[in-house]
Automatic annotation (TrEMBL):
GO molecular function: catalytic activity
Protein name, as recorded: Diguanylate cyclase
Record carries keyword Transmembrane: yes
One matching Pfam family: GGDEF
Compartments where located: Cell membrane
SUPFAM superfamilies assigned to the protein according to its UniProt record, in alphabetical order: Nucleotide cyclase, Sensory domain-like
Membrane-topology annotation of the record: Multi-pass membrane protein
SMART domains xref list: GGDEF, HAMP
Protein's organism: Inhella proteolytica
Keyword Iron: no
Biological process annotations from GO: signal transduction
GGDEF domain location: 439-573
Keywords, alphabetical: Cell membrane, Membrane, Transmembrane, Transmembrane helix
All copies of domain HAMP, residue ranges: 343-396
Length: 573
């Protein structure tokens, strides 16, 4: 099926509309999706920074608690062991303070005072136990001189705080902290001579601390904590946390390859990273490493937050659905407009096409074109109508000219009678009919008498007027069935088809003709008079063909001339 111009135009409009709506929707969706992704990354990085900062602040709080005890004179006094009674009372009071501390800080597993002079012997120790916070009996106190938190801390100057590597606590008798991720924070206790006498140690519950820090995070975020080597300390999948403690490996670059760059950064400096993994079904993650600050930290901490990509893009998907609805709406509108436009165009175009197709120069001109429109189609319609009108006029002129030419081809221009050629056609036709019907006919060959002197005396115009006057007279004289023609010069011929059988009647006609020719014709106040001689030939009597009949009639006319003019003679066969 071939589509019309209006339909094709409509289809182009519809296609353009649908395409424009689709592209706008697609690019709008892509741009807003990227903006959402950027905003989500920014939010995630900000939340991670806040979390890392909170961790630093929290470690600072613990450090202040540790220092509070390390700097307290009671600690140094207790370690001097001067008076056993005072010693016991001071130890009890210290234990009470430790207990208060554990009760108000749920993230502390243990607090203890260690005597570095006696191989790191614990002097006072309070543990979080199943049934509450308890002072550990003297008999259960242990030597801790071999532990890093003791031998590393005693090297520190006054006022410094040691922070251990995060580890799983395998110490014997650690109670609630046993086999849990812990962080030991310790400060040296110095005497008046600035000699290190002991160490105050707090065991921090790493998971508890983090749960507390992450409590305010939005739902759906995954929390990660790594050490400086990238080993997971906290991971949503518990099997990956402290894998190194079980002789395995679970490091952040395995899940987030871009994190290698962060691990390669020099320590002690702040470092950040945002990365995605796994495409649309993966995750966006942000990692922040906080500077160590004043603390003597054994290892760095890297804090990470991740969000599933589908959560990040959920807003974008909603936007996408809205976009799809908008695109569909606009496409439907474009289609509707295209149909309306196509119809508005196809009607006038159809009218013009029908008018052009149905136009005929012969048929009367009917204006059914949309000529009243003010647009280009109106201009086209008016132009078509003008063209049709001109064609009509030219056709009429042509017809008139054709009729005139037809008339000139068969008639004598001076008298209006049939000319020789047309007369011969008529004669042939009449002869054929007469032959078929065994009919008869007769020719009266007429030549004017003394016509030349008229020309000579009164001028050519007078001769013309005489010829015209006599021709008119001959036309009126004969019957309707007869034919009068001018053969040329002053020669006329009369064909009689009815009543030609009777020589008497023919003779009568010839006499009437002679009488009519001898009547004067007025011209410019003159009376022009001539007359005529007639030769009569009959079919089939005087000849079977036109030429023979004409020759016979001419011959008879010539005889009439020679015998005195103004008379008629029958041909002699
Ligand atoms: N005015 C005019 N004269 C014509 C026309 N055609 C022929 N003639 C003239 O008609 C004359 C005819 O010649 P003729 O028949 O010999 O002259 P005529 O005087 O009639 O001679 P007769 O027939 O012997 O009586 C010529 O002088 C032609 O010039 C015409 O159309 N108009």
């Amino acid at each position: 099926m071939r589509l019309g111009l209006a339909a094709r135009f409509g289809a182009v409009i519809a296609l353009t509309g649908v395409l424009a709506a689709g592209l706008t929707g697609y690019y709008g969706y892509s741009a807003s999706r990227q903006m959402l992704l950027d905003a989500a990354e920014e939010r995630l990085l900000t939340a991670t920074r806040v979390l890392a900062r909170q961790l630093t602040l929290e470690l600072g709080n613990v450090a202040r608690d540790v220092l509070l005890f390390a700097e307290h004179p009671v600690a140094a006094q207790l370690l001097l062991r001067s008076d056993p009674q005072l010693q016991e009372r001071t130890a009890r009071n210290t234990a009470i303070l430790f207990e208060r501390m554990l009760l108000t800080h749920p993230q502390y597993f243990q607090m203890r005072l260690i005597d570095t002079d006696s191989y790191g012997q614990e002097v006072v120790r309070v543990d979080r136990q199943r049934d509450g916070v308890r002072r550990v009996p003297e008999a259960e106190l242990q030597e801790k001189g071999h532990t890093p938190y003791v031998y590393e801390t005693i090297r520190l100057p006054r006022g410094s705080v040691y922070v251990s590597r995060a580890s799983i606590n395998h110490e014997v008798g650690a109670h609630m902290g046993s086999e849990k991720p812990v962080l030991q924070m310790a400060a040296p206790v110095l005497d008046a001579q600035q000699q290190v006498r002991g160490v105050i140690v707090v065991n921090v519950d790493l998971e508890g601390l983090f749960q507390q820090l992450a409590a305010d995070l939005p739902a759906g975020l995954q929390l990660y904590l790594m050490n400086g080597e990238g080993d997971y300390l906290i991971h949503p999948d518990k099997a990956k946390a402290f894998a190194f403690d079980r002789g395995q490996q679970a490091r952040v670059p395995e899940d987030f390859p871009a994190a290698s760059a962060l691990l390669a950064e020099p320590p002690q400096r702040k470092a950040e990273l945002v990365t995605h993994v796994g495409g649309r079904s993966g995750r966006v993650a942000a990692f922040v490493r906080q500077p160590r600050g004043d603390l003597a930290i054994e290892d760095d901490f890297i804090v990470g937050l991740a969000q599933p990509m589908d959560q990040v893009l959920a807003e974008g998907e909603r936007l996408g659905r809205v976009n799809v609805r908008i695109v569909l709406g606009f496409s439907a509108l474009a289609l509707l407009l295209a149909v309306l436009l196509a119809r508005a165009l196809s009607r006038p175009i159809g009218q013009i096409v029908r008018s052009v197709r149905g136009f005929s120069a012969q048929a009367p001109l009917v204006n059914e074109l949309p000529s009243t429109r003010n647009d280009e189609l109106g201009v086209l319609a008016r132009s078509v109508h003008d063209m049709q009108r001109q064609i009509h006029q030219q056709f009429e002129t042509l017809q008139l000219k054709q009729a005139e030419m037809d008339r000139l081809a068969s008639h004598d221009s001076l008298t209006g009678l049939l000319n020789r050629r047309a007369f011969l056609d008529r004669l042939e036709h009449a002869l054929a009919q007469a032959r078929r019907s065994q009919g008869r006919l007769a020719l009266l060959y007429i030549d004017l008498d003394h016509f030349k002197p008229i020309n000579d005396r009164f001028g050519h115009a007078a001769g013309d007027a005489l010829l015209q006057g006599l021709a008119l007279r001959l036309q009126h004289l004969v019957r309707e069935s007869d034919t009068v023609a001018r053969l040329g010069g002053d020669e006329f011929v009369l064909l009689i088809e009815q009543g030609a059988a009777d020589d008497g009647a023919l003779h009568g006609v010839a006499q009437k003709v002679l009488a009519a020719l001898s009547e004067p014709v007025p011209f410019q106040g003159q009376q022009l008079v001539c007359g005529g001689s007639i030769g009569i030939a009959r079919f089939p009597h005087d000849g079977p063909t036109a030429s023979e009949l004409l020759a016979a009639a001419d011959q008879a006319m010539y005889q009439a001339k020679t015998e005195g003019r103004h008379q008629a003679r029958f041909a002699r066969s």
